Amino acid sequence: MIETGLVPDFIVVDGSEGGTGAAPVEFIDHIGMPMRDSLRLIHTTLIAANLRQKVRLGAAGKIISAFDIVRVTAIGADWCNSARGFMFAIGCIQSRTCNTDRCPTGVATQNHLR
């Protein structure tokens, strides 16, 4: 970005916190970096490169409550993407069967009987 002068309008930082719950446990536990650590790294890197004012940062990953939003905006996010809280609101119990089409609550399935 420094060499070319080409800068993205925004970057959305997501973490290794598990997403929909359909990811295998090995992936959740051992692949990726926690969102807050990643956000700190990208925010400070953009500041050091004198690019932070040109690039907006979004944050996603385990954003459930207003406290989570305040926490990531304090770290450097300009906005938050949240799905987990909404999934809980419609009945998700995090049974980790999203990828099987057998969600016990019917939230993450295309099976019309569920």
Topology of this protein?
Blueprint: E1 10-13, H1 25-30, H2 35-48, E2 56-60, H3 66-75, E3 79-81, H4 84-89
Parallel strand pairs: 1-2, 2-3
Write up what this structure looks like.
The chain is an alpha/beta fold. It has a domain at 10-82. 32% of the residues lie in helices and 11% in strands. The chain is built from four helices and three strands, in the order βααβαβα. It has helices at residues 25-30, 35-48, 66-75, 84-89; strands at 10-13, 56-60, 79-81. Strands 1-2-3 form a three-stranded parallel sheet, covered by helices on one side. Helix 3 (66-75) links the parallel strand 2 and strand 3 (79-81). The N and C termini lie far apart (48 Å).
Condensed summary:
The chain has 114 residues and is α/β, with parallel strands linked by helices. The chain has helices at residues 25-30, 35-48, 66-75, 84-89; strands spanning 10-13, 56-60, 79-81.
